Amino acid sequence: MKQHEFEQLHQGLWQTLEECLANPKQPLDKHFPQQYRQLCQHLAVAKSRLYTRSLINRLNNLVVECHHILYRHNTLSEQKWLWFLVYGFPQAIRSNLNFVVTAAVLFLLPLLILGIGCYTHSELIYSVINAETVASFEAMYDPQNRSIGRERDSEEDIAMFGHYIQNNIGIGFRTFASGIVFGLGSVFVLVFNGITIGSVAGYLTQAGYEATFYQFVVGHGAFELTAIVFCGAAGLKIGFSLLAPGRFTRLQALKIASRQAVVIVYGSALMLLIAAFIEAFWSSSQSLPLSVKYSFGAAWAVLLTLYFSFSGKRYEPR
Length: 318
Description:
Keywords: Membrane, Transmembrane, Transmembrane helix
Low-confidence stretches: 73-78
Number of helices: 12
Transmembrane segments: 97-119, 180-204, 216-240, 261-282, 294-310
Protein name: Stage II sporulation protein M
Number of domains: 2
Organism: Halioxenophilus aromaticivorans
InterPro entries: SpoIIM-like
């Protein structure tokens, strides 16, 4: 069967399920479980017959959303926090990988370009950051400091924890919320943060502060930078739903997109909270060997990669 014939044959069922997703408060039809099983079969057929990627993505997203509705009262979801950590958050990242990759490129590309630029031409930093702020960064990462990042006494760690929470959550929320402007806001915030972080990293490296700078950021960087990218991906998803609502009104498309976007934002907020804790109580210490700090950061990077790649996969529809 050709793809257009396959689509014409089953279009009615797909539209019925999409309308159900657009109105989540509406009671489920008694035939919903059977319709869900048919949808899973349609996805398997589309993959086996090598139909277009757009059709497979549509059916896959529809299967995931229907799965959430159908099994929202099962044993795992009764423990909502466990469901969220084991399945909800990592699955939302995997099912929106296209937005995650786009956000990562928007963040990392300017970071690398400006990092290399400021490393090879240190004066470039002043085109991005004013001289006073540059001087404050130099003071923060001076190897003569008792603590890295900020000069402070140990009893101030709790206060700095609160500061980092406010700063990290603020950046994450702005990255996500600005996506409501058809995704342009998230694009701007991602690029801006990439430029700023890359410029500072490149400048401090060429200035000879690489030892203190990198041992400070390596511990919490995996959590903080990844969470910023995820918030950007959530913002891009919101923006895309407004740009290309498909068969829905923009409001309906926004509601559908928001369900997974909010899951991503909640998970990212948790990551930013963890990053703030590490930044306040671990990253600033100079009493630990560099090998320990770098091993700590690398271990978290590997664990996060494994978590988002595999956690909760056994619960996903086949």
